[in-house]
From TrEMBL:
Coiled coil feature spans: none
Regions of compositional bias (Pro residues) in chain numbering: 1-22
Record protein name field: GntR family transcriptional regulator
Domain HTH gntR-type residues, every copy: 25-93
Signal peptide from the UniProt entry: none
Length: 238
């Protein structure tokens, strides 16, 4: 008679009325899709910062490790971007961002400038036509932060503040596709600003963006477009 074979017993069923706990991989995928759905739904717009990890844990009802892995998956997909000391931001609603980032590397800065000009000039023109009081308040705040960052003397802080102002201009254009495409070149955008600074914030490198904001406030699309384009001449200013 052949020896009997013992098979491992199935895990015990949860007590009656208590839902089964899904496996870890499933929880991560489910949490990733929840985050993606909130991004696609506009709760966290492109260019905006998502809640902190503890806030996400409380909102989604999952553990820290699950949230961390879900966020990491969306960073890898190019939907989110972690910025040291600042937080995690939405950079795209799809996986276009990493593709664009690979195309627009540091060795193609001339092309990056041309792409920035194409986006930012039209964004400024549209912003002058469509800006709302909330947009103007956001622009004023971003401009003030940019000035403060310049006077603070740290190149990395200024690069972030400058990018935030330009992103606010794009947001004021109220064109979702433009905002998404612009966000996809965010890393390359920061590289052009950092390169233009040359490692130090010196007076001759300063570019005032006050006139750009004022042109948008005045509802003058032609002047706003000219101001936006003036920053992106061959000198590659911020």
């Amino acid at each position: 008679m052949p020896p009997s074979v013992e098979f491992p017993s199935a895990p015990p069923a949860p007590p009656r009325g208590q839902p089964a706990v899904p496996p870890r991989g499933h929880r991560v995928r489910q949490t990733t899709e929840q985050l993606r759905a909130r991004i696609l739904g506009g709760e966290w717009p492109v260019g905006g910062r998502i809640p902190t990890e503890p806030q996400l844990v409380a909102a989604l009802g999952v553990g820290r490790n699950t949230v961390r892995e879900a966020v990491r998956a969306l960073v890898h997909a190019g939907v989110l971007e972690c910025r040291q000391g600042s937080g995690t931001y939405v950079v795209s609603t799809d996986e276009l961002a990493p593709v664009v980032a690979r195309r627009l590397g540091d060795d193609r800065m001339t092309e990056v400038i041309e792409v920035r000009r194409a986006f930012e000039v039209e964004a400024a023109r549209l912003a002058a036509l469509r800006r709302t009081p909330e947009d103007l308040a956001a622009l004023d705040g971003a401009l003030a932060q940019r000035e403060a960052a310049w006077h603070g003397g740290r190149v990395d802080a200024f690069v972030e503040a400058d990018a935030a102002l330009h992103t606010a201009v794009v947001a004021a254009a109220h064109n979702a596709m433009l905002a998404e495409l612009y966000a996809s070149v965010g890393t390359a955008l920061r590289s052009t600003v950092a390169q233009a600074m040359g490692g130090a914030l010196t007076p001759e490198r300063y570019v005032d963006h006050t006139r750009l904001v004022e042109a948008i406030r005045a509802g003058d699309p032609g002047r706003a477009a000219l101001e936006a384009g003036a920053f992106l001449e061959p000198a590659e200013r911020a």
